[in-house]
Input
Amino acid sequence: MAETPLPPASTEARQERRWLAAGAVVGVAVVGLVVLAVAVFSGGDGPTSGPAPSAASQALTSAPQAATLRDEALRAAEASAVSLRSLDFRTAAQDLDRWELTATGALLDDLRMQRASVASAVAQQRTVTTARVVAAGVSAVSVPSGTAEVLVVLEVSVAGQDGVTTTQARQKLTMTRTGQGWKPSVLVDVEPSA
Amino acid sequence: MRPRGVMCWLAAFALLMGGTASAAEQDANLAFVDSQGTREVVEAARSALPTALSYSYDKLDGVTRVAAEVGTRQFADLQADYIAQIRATVTRQRLGVRTEVVEVGVQDLGPDSGRLLVFLEQVSTRGDVNRTSTQGIAAAVELRKVDGQWRLDRVRDVV
Output
């Protein structure tokens, strides 16, 4: 359904579109890896310290700074979301290196911790996962702490021996300004509650 | 002297216009630049979407009334068309849909228009088979300010 309003969830159209059972097995493994619900910034390669991003309603003290931060964080979040959903079994080592370069803080810690299991899974299942950004928007900006929260919708394709499966993923990334640019410190897949 | 003066003036004009364009470009999107406006459009969406996108098979006529209350005329017309399309199916299934807003991201904000990316959760209950399901939806939501009030103008699935 492409027009107002959204259809009832049980219509045939929605059943057809949503969500194709979360893709192939390695797709699930990748999803599981990057789903973090950690709300604390820590460690990594030096994220800017400070409070968590403000709600949308928090007053901002510097409009030009807010615009710059918003746009930089948005671009970085889009690139990071794609990077952290892309994994090719033929180049897994390099891809996992890229994942670690992409992330910071708690997310980086988790990626490092789960690296071996992900590498093993993708080698066994021989899948190629790619992603592209469908839409993105900024949900919070904090100039003082140099952080932002960004919502990203991805189209994720998993190619394996059984063909290609495409799903949609909803993600929320907490972006943190580091010495190496904007990086996600938290990444959460926003799934239905039931 | 005159041509040179003209050239200098043109150069200065170009610099001025360039600077103006740059500032205008940066200021065009007021999301999080205008904190009050950002808060208002987000709160308007959070308030309007659950009522506008929730319905029950036995109260379908209320959908168009709610749409007129929280939306523009375009939105109300689209809702009316949609209800007309689904009425038979919804009634047969004895379907009820409850919509909740999970997350709101701002894509663009102008003085009288806003574009949002909204993560919704829809809980659907089919009375004919006694089954309930929950689905996450990414929606592109457009709002317009009419007479000082933010109103839903269009809601689409992000695909």
Summary: The first helix of chain B runs from residue 2 to 28. Strands of chain B lie at 55-56, 95-109, 113-126, 131-146, 149-157.
